[in-house]
Protein backbone atom coordinates (compact mmCIF):
# COMPACT_ATOMS: atom_id res chain seq x y z
CA UNK A 1 0.00 0.00 0.00
CA UNK A 2 1.52 3.31 -0.95
CA UNK A 3 1.96 6.09 1.59
CA UNK A 4 -1.02 8.10 0.36
CA UNK A 5 -3.45 5.17 0.63
CA UNK A 6 -2.09 4.34 4.12
CA UNK A 7 -2.62 7.98 5.11
CA UNK A 8 -6.20 7.79 3.80
CA UNK A 9 -6.79 4.63 5.84
CA UNK A 10 -5.44 6.33 8.97
CA UNK A 11 -7.61 9.37 8.24
CA UNK A 12 -10.67 7.17 7.86
CA UNK A 13 -9.94 5.40 11.13
CA UNK A 14 -9.13 8.61 13.01
CA UNK A 15 -12.37 10.26 11.90
CA UNK A 16 -14.46 7.22 12.76
CA UNK A 17 -15.74 6.89 9.20
CA UNK A 18 -17.01 3.45 8.33
CA UNK A 19 -15.16 1.22 5.92
CA UNK A 20 -16.95 -1.94 4.89
CA UNK A 21 -16.61 -4.94 2.60
CA UNK A 22 -17.89 -2.75 -0.23
CA UNK A 23 -15.09 -0.22 0.32
CA UNK A 24 -11.77 -2.08 0.64
CA UNK A 25 -8.46 -0.25 0.50
CA UNK A 26 -5.86 -2.31 -1.40
CA UNK A 27 -7.64 -5.54 -0.57
CA UNK A 28 -7.77 -4.93 3.18
CA UNK A 29 -11.35 -4.98 4.35
CA UNK A 30 -12.14 -3.56 7.76
CA UNK A 31 -15.09 -4.78 9.75
CA UNK A 32 -17.24 -1.81 10.78
CA UNK A 33 -16.97 -2.38 14.54
CA UNK A 34 -13.16 -2.44 14.30
CA UNK A 35 -13.09 1.19 13.16
CA UNK A 36 -14.38 2.63 16.47
CA UNK A 37 -11.93 0.43 18.36
CA UNK A 38 -9.03 1.66 16.22
CA UNK A 39 -10.26 5.22 16.74
CA UNK A 40 -10.12 4.69 20.52
CA UNK A 41 -6.66 3.17 20.16
CA UNK A 42 -5.47 6.18 18.19
CA UNK A 43 -6.98 8.59 20.75
CA UNK A 44 -5.16 6.85 23.62
CA UNK A 45 -1.88 6.88 21.68
CA UNK A 46 -2.29 10.61 20.97
CA UNK A 47 -2.98 11.21 24.66
CA UNK A 48 0.21 9.36 25.57
CA UNK A 49 2.14 11.58 23.16
CA UNK A 50 0.55 14.68 24.68
CA UNK A 51 1.43 13.44 28.16
CA UNK A 52 5.02 12.83 27.08
CA UNK A 53 5.41 16.32 25.65
CA UNK A 54 3.99 17.91 28.81
CA UNK A 55 5.55 15.40 31.25
CA UNK A 56 2.09 14.55 32.62
CA UNK A 57 3.00 11.16 34.03
CA UNK A 58 -0.47 10.18 35.23
CA UNK A 59 -1.87 10.91 31.77
CA UNK A 60 0.85 8.77 30.20
CA UNK A 61 0.29 5.88 32.61
CA UNK A 62 -3.51 5.92 32.48
CA UNK A 63 -3.60 5.96 28.68
CA UNK A 64 -1.03 3.16 28.45
CA UNK A 65 -3.24 1.15 30.84
CA UNK A 66 -6.30 1.96 28.73
CA UNK A 67 -4.51 0.79 25.58
CA UNK A 68 -3.51 -2.48 27.22
CA UNK A 69 -7.08 -3.08 28.37
CA UNK A 70 -8.40 -2.14 24.94
CA UNK A 71 -6.17 -4.81 23.43
CA UNK A 72 -7.97 -7.40 25.51
CA UNK A 73 -11.45 -6.58 24.19
CA UNK A 74 -13.12 -9.13 21.94
CA UNK A 75 -13.20 -6.74 18.96
CA UNK A 76 -9.40 -6.53 19.15
CA UNK A 77 -8.84 -10.28 19.14
CA UNK A 78 -10.40 -11.02 15.78
CA UNK A 79 -7.63 -13.08 14.23
CA UNK A 80 -6.66 -16.43 15.69
CA UNK A 81 -3.10 -16.92 14.46
CA UNK A 82 0.12 -17.32 16.41
CA UNK A 83 1.60 -14.26 14.71
CA UNK A 84 -1.39 -12.08 15.58
CA UNK A 85 -1.22 -13.30 19.18
CA UNK A 86 2.51 -12.47 19.26
CA UNK A 87 1.82 -9.02 17.84
CA UNK A 88 -0.85 -8.40 20.49
CA UNK A 89 1.43 -9.60 23.28
CA UNK A 90 4.25 -7.35 22.05
CA UNK A 91 1.79 -4.44 21.99
CA UNK A 92 0.75 -5.17 25.59
CA UNK A 93 4.38 -5.36 26.72
CA UNK A 94 5.03 -1.96 25.13
CA UNK A 95 2.01 -0.55 26.99
CA UNK A 96 3.34 -2.02 30.24
CA UNK A 97 6.76 -0.45 29.60
CA UNK A 98 5.19 2.96 29.02
CA UNK A 99 3.11 2.67 32.19
CA UNK A 100 6.08 1.57 34.34
CA UNK A 101 8.29 4.35 32.97
CA UNK A 102 5.56 6.91 33.64
CA UNK A 103 5.13 5.64 37.20
CA UNK A 104 8.90 6.04 37.65
CA UNK A 105 8.61 9.55 36.17
CA UNK A 106 11.18 8.62 33.55
CA UNK A 107 10.19 10.62 30.47
CA UNK A 108 13.06 9.32 28.34
CA UNK A 109 12.26 5.68 29.00
CA UNK A 110 8.53 6.35 28.46
CA UNK A 111 9.28 8.07 25.15
CA UNK A 112 11.40 5.14 23.99
CA UNK A 113 8.64 2.72 24.99
CA UNK A 114 6.16 4.89 23.04
CA UNK A 115 8.33 4.53 19.94
CA UNK A 116 8.30 0.76 20.52
CA UNK A 117 4.51 0.87 20.81
CA UNK A 118 4.26 2.76 17.53
CA UNK A 119 6.50 0.21 15.81
CA UNK A 120 4.29 -2.58 17.21
CA UNK A 121 1.22 -0.93 15.67
CA UNK A 122 2.91 -0.52 12.30
CA UNK A 123 4.19 -4.11 12.29
CA UNK A 124 0.79 -5.57 13.16
CA UNK A 125 -1.00 -3.50 10.53
CA UNK A 126 1.65 -4.58 8.02
CA UNK A 127 1.04 -8.22 8.99
CA UNK A 128 -2.68 -7.77 8.40
CA UNK A 129 -2.11 -6.12 5.01
CA UNK A 130 0.58 -8.55 3.86
CA UNK A 131 -1.65 -11.50 4.69
CA UNK A 132 -4.73 -9.79 3.25
CA UNK A 133 -6.67 -10.64 6.37
CA UNK A 134 -10.29 -9.78 5.76
CA UNK A 135 -11.84 -8.69 9.04
CA UNK A 136 -15.37 -8.97 7.66
CA UNK A 137 -15.12 -12.75 7.95
CA UNK A 138 -14.66 -12.68 11.72
CA UNK A 139 -17.32 -12.47 14.43
CA UNK A 140 -19.15 -9.21 14.88
Automatic annotation (TrEMBL):
<dbReference type="InterPro" id="IPR010980">
    <property type="entry name" value="Cyt_c/b562"/>
</dbReference>
<dbReference type="GO" id="GO:0020037">
    <property type="term" value="F:heme binding"/>
</dbReference>
<dbReference type="GO" id="GO:0009055">
    <property type="term" value="F:electron transfer activity"/>
</dbReference>
<feature type="signal peptide">
    <location>
        <begin position="1"/>
        <end position="21"/>
    </location>
</feature>
<dbReference type="GO" id="GO:0022900">
    <property type="term" value="P:electron transport chain"/>
</dbReference>
<protein>
    <recommendedName>
        <fullName>Cytochrome c</fullName>
    </recommendedName>
</protein>
<keyword id="KW-0732">Signal</keyword>
<dbReference type="GO" id="GO:0005506">
    <property type="term" value="F:iron ion binding"/>
</dbReference>
Amino acid sequence: MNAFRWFVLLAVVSTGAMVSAQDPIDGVVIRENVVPLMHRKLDRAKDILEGLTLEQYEKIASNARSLRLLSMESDWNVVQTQEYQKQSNDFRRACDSIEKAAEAKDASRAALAYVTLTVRCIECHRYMRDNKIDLTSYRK
